[in-house]
Amino acid sequence: GENVEQHPSTLSVQEGDSAVIKCTYSDSASNYFPWYKQELGKRPQLIIDIRSNVGEKKDQRIAVTLNKTAKHFSLHITETQPEDSAVYFCAASKYGNKLVFGAGTILRVKS
Amino acid sequence: GAVVSQHPSWVICKSGTSVKIECRSLDFQATTMFWYRQFPKQSLMLMATSNEGSKATYEQGVEKDKFLINHASLTLSTLTVTSAHPEDSSFYICSAGFLDRGSEQYFGPGTRLTVT
Questions:
Q1: Integer Cα distance of A87 and A19 in angstroms
Q2: Confidence class for position A54, pLDDT limits 50, 70, 90
Q3: Which of A16, B47, B59, B75 would be a feasible disulfide site paired with B35, CB 3.0-4.6 Å?
Q4: Three-state secondary structure call for residue A83
Q5: Nearest CA-CA partner of B82 in B18, B14, B15, B16
Q6: Share of chain B above pLDDT 70, in %
Q7: Measured between alpha carbons, how far is residue B26 from residues A68, B37, B107 in Å?
Q8: Could you tell me which residues come within 8 angstroms of residue B34 by beta carbon, excluding any fewer than 6 positions away?
Q9: B109, B103, B116, B90: which is closest to B32 by C-alpha?
Q10: Residue B73: predicted pLDDT
Q11: CA distance to partner chain B, nearest, from residue A36 (Å)
Q12: What is the C-alpha separation between A23 and A69, in angstroms, rounded?
């Protein structure tokens, strides 16, 4: 089955700097790659997603890139702000199938 | 759109009792609902997938007789933790999706279960 690895497990950045979180997946048939932000005790919130027919997607300060050949995808957050501090999860899925989550990255933005 | 609710948001129960958690899709009909468990500082672990009107599919290592899932309608799924023990204390989150939107899932707010 699908296996998703996520790095780093923790990331500290200075406010205004960029943050990059990387994930690799094992199943070449996976075609949907969402990123979630989760604050303590709350539900995961979808912040951006990408499908396998696209190499990059951007939404304001957030972007995701996908390399299907290498089977990895990355989350890029620019101009980080203290409110970006949270746990971020990547996930992978095949059409209509369950999501397989990465282990999560604790992002701390220092002001 | 695509709002999912859960009830209760938190519950404390005594060891040996059963607890039922409800998951509702409020403004859409979900063909599939998923149940996850999340321990502190860990990722979401899928417990089971349920489709309306059929038996749930449990992930390896999840006891189907302990975690009873019922998906009686396109807007409601329930998870019953039977004979709860302290090690079942966790954050339980449901999500709902529908096949014509591929793999997108919409998460409920979660239920914090504490077994004493």
A1: 13
A2: confident
A3: B47
A4: helix
A5: B18
A6: 95
A7: 36, 22, 12
A8: A98, A99, B46, B48, B49, B50, B94, B95, B96, B97, B105
A9: B103
A10: 87
A11: 11
A12: 14
In B16-66, beta strands by DSSP E: 19-25, 32-38, 45-51, 57-58
Question: What's the pLDDT score for residue B1?
Answer: 67
In angstroms and rounded to an integer, the radius of gyration of the C-alpha atoms of chain B is: 13
Residues 6+ positions from B90 with CB-CB distance below 8 Å: B37, B38, B39, B113
Q: Is A44 on the interface with B (CB under 8 A)?
A: yes
Question: Rounded distance, CA B98 to CA B116, Å?
Answer: 37
For every residue of B52-99, DSSP letters joined together read TTSPPEEPTT--TTTEEEEEEETTEEEEEE-S--GGG-EEEEEEEE-G
Give the confidence band of B72 by pLDDT, cuts at 50, 70, 90: confident
> Which residues of chain A make contact with B44, given a CB cutoff of 8 A?
44, 89, 101
User: Of the ranges A93-97, B55-59, B69-73, which is most confident?
Assistant: B55-59
Pair type for strands B10-13 and B111-115: parallel
- Shortest Cα distance, chain A CAs vs residue B47, angstroms: 11
Binding-face residues of B in 48-67 toward A, CB within 8 A = 49
Does A50 contact chain B (CB < 8 Å)?
no
B25 in contact with A, Cβ within 8 Å: no
> Bridge partners of B36?
B46, B93
